[in-house]
Design a protein that fits this description.
alpha+beta, two-stranded antiparallel ribbon, single chain, 16% helix, 5 strands, disordered N terminus
């Protein structure tokens, strides 16, 4: 896993924050070629997310689940082993608000 950037508020793309999100979000169904209905498992609130246009190819790679079985189903790593959210444009509100401890520290 890559080292994280020590600048506060800068995401290092380590993927730690999304590595255990399978306990928070679940895919209910695929509603289109690149759209999914997800549900907050605790509250039952549902939302539709879409795989970002520029991340559709990498989304088809599911090897992350072998290494991180509890990872968010939309987390992937690029060729440089940097994490990316494949639904970044339509990601859930919880993800939009989150700033990991690694990013907060300076």
């Amino acid at each position: 896993m890559p080292e994280y950037d020590s600048k506060p508020g800068i995401c290092s793309r380590c993927g730690c924050c999304c590595s255990y999100m399978a306990d928070v979000f679940g895919i209910i169904e695929q509603t289109g070629p690149f759209t999914y209905r997800i549900q907050y498992l605790i509250t039952g609130v549902q939302q539709v997310v879409t795989i970002d246009q520029d991340k559709r190819e990498i989304f088809s790679t599911t090897s992350i689940l072998d290494k991180r079985p509890l990872a968010c189903p939309f987390l992937r790593f690029d060729d440089e082993n940097l994490a990316m959210c494949t639904v970044h444009q339509t990601r859930p509100e919880l993800c939009r608000m989150y700033l990991c401890d690694r990013c907060k520290k300076g």
